[in-house]
Design goal:
Elements (H helix, E strand, L loop, with lengths): L14 H8 L2 E2 L15 E2 L9 E5 L5 H6 L4 E4 L1 H4 L7 E4 L3 H12 L20 E2 L4 E2 L4 E2 L4 E2 L4 E2 L4 E2 L4 E2 L4 E2 L4 E2 L4 E2 L2 E3 L4 E2 L4 E2 L6 E4 L2 E4 L6 E3 L4 E2 L4 E2 L7 E3 L4 E2 L4 E2 L4 E2 L4 E2 L4 E2 L4 E2 L4 E2 L4 E2 L4 E2 L4 E2 L4 E2 L8 E3 L4 E2 H26 L1
Parallel strand pairs: 2-3, 3-4, 4-5, 6-9, 7-10, 8-11, 9-12, 10-13, 11-14, 12-15, 13-16, 14-17, 15-18, 16-21, 17-22, 18-23, 21-24, 22-25, 23-26, 24-27, 25-28, 26-29, 28-31, 29-32, 30-33, 31-34, 32-35, 34-36
Antiparallel strand pairs: 1-5, 19-20, 36-37
């Protein structure tokens, strides 16, 4: 069985083209054009790179792999440029990994936004599109997808197989809605990526406890997703109860994240997998939350705040703060508490051993 290549590649890039693209500087004596058999066609790690691959080095822990690499070209910071083996083209860059990402984006443009999983073009005859839906040109709708009444979808957007777009939903241009995703009560901006299995716009979790049981609170808001947002697989975003749930432009949400009703997520936030954000909480711009963070309801997390993995946020977090722990507290206080606990544990263990002797 031959090994398939799942992503379409470009024709490749010469070293001179890579230098122009990234602003990297060719080492003295490097030819401006490589022969065709040395054209850079792929990216790879130091230990796996071959003659047609581009790699990078920006950390001393990988110097051993650098010494043995067979790459065609290597992006290197000034500190490590002299360590690159002879015969490998050196591209000096102050930010090698950032430069590598720029090259990868040029070599593999299809990796930046999901395509039709079945290489479909246009609207599949096996999709169900309501007659009142308004579709711009150059839209792909895969088999099994359902597009409801009065939906509007912008040009360049891909709707994956078995996705369901509820009545009156608006989706902007150049978006990608993954297979088996569902969107309702939602307005979606341009260049938004929604991966497979995402649920957007379902009821928020709202009940009024009483002696005869829990009375359901109507959830009458929407979900507003601004431009350039990416939402990972199987994430859920509830619609608002009395105000909209809002995801700010440029924010990136990992797989398996839960965002409750009325939440406002600022611009360019990073929310890592398995995080849960309770209802009516407001996150500022550029907030970062590590994996499995839990955030209580009706809280505020200020601009630029960072919460460490598995942190439990139970009070407001100031702008620019770095918190960790359960319950979450300023990072230095948490580290100090951990160190104190370890010291006490060691002291008690020594005392117990002395008593036994």
């Amino acid at each position: 069985m031959t090994e398939p290549l799942f992503l379409r590649q470009s024709r490749g890039l010469s070293v001179a083209e890579i230098a122009a693209l990234t602003g990297a500087q060719l080492s003295p004596g490097t030819p401006q054009n490589l022969p065709n058999d040395r054209l850079i066609r792929d990216i790879a790690t130091l230990d796996q790179a071959g003659p047609s691959d581009l790699t990078f080095i920006d950390n001393s822990k990988y110097l051993g792999q650098l010494a043995a690499t067979r790459a065609g070209a290597c992006l290197a910071s000034e500190r490590f440029a002299g360590e690159v083996p002879s015969g490998i083209v050196v591209l000096r860059s102050p930010a090698p990994y950032r430069a590598l990402v720029a090259v990868a984006s040029a070599l593999f443009p299809d990796a930046l936004r999901p395509r039709s999983l079945t290489d479909n073009t246009g609207v599949s005859p096996r999709a169900t599109v309501d007659a009142s839906a308004r579709l711009e040109d150059d839209i792909v709708i895969d088999a099994g997808a359902v597009v409801g009444p009065r939906v509007e979808i912008g040009s360049g957007t891909v709707i994956g197989a078995n996705a369901v777009i509820g009545a009156d939903v608006r989706i902007g241009r150049d978006c990608a809605i993954g297979p088996a995703a569902s969107l309702s009560h939602a307005l979606v901006g341009d260049r938004v990526i929604v991966h497979g299995g995402v649920r957007i716009g379902q009821d928020g979790f709202g009940y009024l406890p009483g002696p005869k049981g829990h009375q359901k609170v109507p959830q009458v808001g929407r979900v507003i997703i601004q431009n350039d947002v990416e939402i990972g697989a199987n994430t859920t975003i509830d619609r608002g109860a009395m105000r909209d749930t809002v995801i700010g432009e440029g924010s990136k949400i990992d797989n398996l994240v839960q965002i409750g009703h009325n939440v406002t997520l600022g611009r360019h936030c990073i929310i890592v997998s398995q995080t849960g954000i309770s209802g009516s909480t407001v996150l500022g711009d550029y907030v970062v939350m590590g994996g499995q963070v839990g955030v209580g309801d009706h809280l505020t997390v200020g601009d630029g705040a960072q919460i460490g993995a598995r942190g439990g946020v139970m009070s407001n977090v100031p702008a620019g703060a770095r918190w960790a722990g359960m319950p979450a507290e300023p990072g230095r206080d948490w580290l100090r508490g951990v160190a104190t606990l370890r010291q006490l544990t060691r002291k008690n263990l020594k005392g117990e051993q002395g008593a036994e002797e």
